[in-house]
Automatic annotation (TrEMBL):
Protein name, entry field: Dihydrofolate reductase family protein
Annotated organism of origin: Mesorhizobium shangrilense
Ranges for domain Bacterial bifunctional deaminase-reductase C-terminal: 4-177
Organism superkingdom: Bacteria
């Protein structure tokens, strides 16, 4: 059975994007980027909502193979190699190595989790909130940048109530602190 990890960069005040929808967080530099590359290479599958998937499609571009730094080329390769499941009621098609699901996300993820080994990476706050309510997330990873956005899109959706137990912390490059939690149940 796979483990589902909800993993996002956040501000100190808990936002994954600022009030205007822009990410507003510093771009990962080489050392931090390599951490995310390593995690992507460990993933069996990536789960994403529409907005997260559309943002990450940047890595599908052939330009990422030649015009980027070595660490970015490595991430682009890992992204393209990792199967993706995109949950959206509005998209009609998705790119390479991706499957579109526009109905019951919880049932799809429950089946995927039972039939997959390894790590499943989850990105996107709205999708994560529904899966958290269903008890399908095994770990929460908050990569906290030393920046305050003052509002915007929160890592945890408003109204979501969870009891969590700490799994550990880690200091990373760029002043980022990784906070890891699991459901307390």
């Amino acid at each position: 059975m796979a483990r589902i990890v909800y993993s996002m960069l956040t501000s100190l005040d808990g936002y994954i994007a600022g009030p205007d929808g822009d990410i507003g967080l510093p771009v990962p530099e080489t050392e931090l980027h390599q951490h995310f590359n390593d995690m992507m290479r460990q993933a069996s599958v990536v789960l994403a909502g529409r907005r997260m998937y559309e943002m990450m499609r940047f890595w599908d571009s052939p330009d990422r193979e030649t015009g980027a730094t070595e660490v970015e080329r490595d991430f682009a390769g890992a992204w393209r190699e990792t199967p993706k499941i995109v949950f959206s009621a509005t998209l009609r098609q998705v790119g390479p190595n991706a499957r579109l699901v526009n109905d019951d996300a919880q049932a799809t993820v429950r089946s995927l989790k039972a039939g997959t080994e390894g790590l499943i990476i989850l990105g996107g706050a709205d999708l994560a909130a529904g899966l958290a309510r269903a008890g399908l997330i095994d770990e929460y990873r908050l990569y906290m940048h030393p920046i305050v956005l003052g509002g915007g899109k929160p890592y945890f959706q408003s109204g979501l109530s969870l009891a969590l137990k700490p799994l550990g912390t880690e200091s990373l490059a760029q002043g980022v602190t990784l906070l890891r939690y699991a459901p307390a149940g």
